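does this look right to u?? iron/sulfur cluster version
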Amino acid sequence: MPPENPGNFEQFNGRRYNAYNDWVKRAHGGRWQKVSIDAGFTCPNRDGSLGIGGCSFCNNDGFTPSYLREEREIATQIDTGITFMRRRYPDSKGFLAYFQSYSNTYDELARLKSRYDIALAHPGISGIVIGTRPDCLPEATLDYLAELSTQTMLELEIGIESCNDDVLRECLRGHDFACTQDAIRRAARRGLFITGHLLLGLPLETAQSLVDGAKALALLPLDALKFHQLQILRGTRLANRYRAAPESVPLLNPESYLDAVIDVLEQLPPDIKIQRLGSEVPPAVRVSPDWGMRLAKFQACLEERLHTRDTWQGRYFAGQAQPGN
Ligand code: SF4
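got this back:
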């Protein structure tokens, strides 16, 4: 028997899922806006350590603001980003430097520190968000991040993408899910705030593999999760395959995507904060059809769909998230 509808979603601020933005307002007194940075790092799937062509879906231009492509100085990128964000979100309480492009822990520790220090020294920046791959988190780097997190607001964002090894192999990711589990546990042992990044709709992912993966994620010490829909971007291996044989890359549509998000949400513990529900990419970069969904619409449609299905985050979560060790 499925659990009864609790009929009371006070723990989610009246929603049916745990929205990160609600939590951040409660925990940090307001909205904190992330300012994207390209710090000039690469990733092992591009520099030849694991591969040279990258993950099959990856084109960093798909999620990199245009000013980052023209400006190399971190401080100037931050100036431009803050000016833009202030106009768009005038109620922002502050700004976090978001090391977003490529793998931002993939370098000598001294060089990582120098890049992070430049961002943290900027007078408009109150903290740091570091996006990376799970196989780019050696112990010394995690120790340093743990130390840094005692001095500033710090979030570590780990690319999970899929919890299924066949899917990870197919998209040429270069690591398996065991690597992801290990990285999350090692980071959590040090008390770091960890966000996972999940990409829904990758080739070979099925409704069942997604639910199985969500059950595995539910047992990890994650603080937050981001969902993105697979979009086919120019310059990627997936784009080549899609152009040659579109039927070889079956894509989700907005309805099936939202159902997939909900299937995952139902398995997660209620305390995982949902940081993002989808992504927008510039039309010039996108090859797959445009859904015409802005981020606010993802949220509204998800809430409507949760209501229609009369379900909620954590509905089927029965386990207990593991501590970091
Ligand atoms: S998705 Fe990340 S790990 Fe994969 S190729 Fe792109 S930057 Fe590298």
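The two ends are 33 Å apart (CA to CA). idk if thats expected tbh
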